Amino acid sequence: MIAFLCGLVIQVDLGSCVIDVNGVGYLVAASTRTLAALPNPPEKARILVETVVREDAILLYGFMESAEREWFRLLTSVQGVGAKVALGILSTLSPGELVAALMTSDKASLTRAPGVGGRLAERILTELRDKAGKMPGGGGGITIPAMATPAGSIEADALMALAGLGFRRAEAAPVVRKVMDAHGAAATLDLVIRDSLKDLAR
Predict the structure, then answer these.
(1) Whole-structure pTM over 0.85, yes or no?
(2) Taking the C-alpha atoms of 41, 42, 48 and 52 in order, what is their torsion angle to the nearest 10 degrees?
């Protein structure tokens, strides 16, 4: 199996690139995030690879970061999520945004990805939510409570939940305060955590 390629970027197209390694051109499918991070042809690059062997082809999928490759592997473990759909999700959402979407059951964010309808988004949420916190972009697998709490403790509980996801209090506190100010009396714990995660994942 090919773990990575190191060579000249010869061509970058929509959804794929060609890497020249010692005179052999490898066609590598990739997310728009990875393709955008590649240097301009014909400069040298190192790209991580997931090799998929089928009866009729050997397919290469490339990633600039190991976090994206780990998410690709996890996403393709869900029935109905093939390599193309997984790359579409990774083109739409960063690892941090994926964690936020899964932990807050944000189906709308998932359905922004090409090929992901409501039913598939629901399956992804159901199968991967418990794993999201342990993936790159997340923390220790904390489960975010969906119930609202008394107004005085919402900020503290939100900061505790975000700390469990790996965010430092110093970076999370101003975001939580901004979200709470924006929603005022309508702020619930679930809403504050969800909106704060979206902001922090950018």
Answers:
(1) no
(2) 80
